[in-house]
Amino acid sequence: MVNKVILIGNLGQDPEAPRKTNSGLSVLDISIATTRKRGGESHTDWHTVTCFGQTADNVHKFLAKGRQVYIEGRLQYDSWTDEKTGQKRKKAKVVADNVTFLSRQNSEGASSGGSYNKSSSPMPDFSSNVGDEDIPF
What we know:
By secondary structure, this protein is mainly beta. It has one helix at 53-62, and strands spanning 5-11, 19-20, 26-38, 41-52, 68-81, 88-105, 111-117.
């Protein structure tokens, strides 16, 4: 069986500071907007993405509202009972395995990107200015 989600979209708001689990693991929820076109009309879908550990810390540190990201993860449903109405509720979210920062403006105005996943370390250095002559192909 396969449970794989891939999204490319933009952050809907600045990430809040990660919360910590009892064991000290960082957890961060972000909202990603994706747009699809159908019949000449654009439709925007909003997705809740949950990041854990160093990924959560780096998303908070390096990303801001409007930044484009590539997310790989899995779909998960959270269920709970609404305290006010007593109704059972369910919400879909994506649990991120990999977050790739697709574009970022550095102080010189050049575009750069980076990625982070739960097996990566340390965070890529976004300050380097790699030119076309540095690319080996």
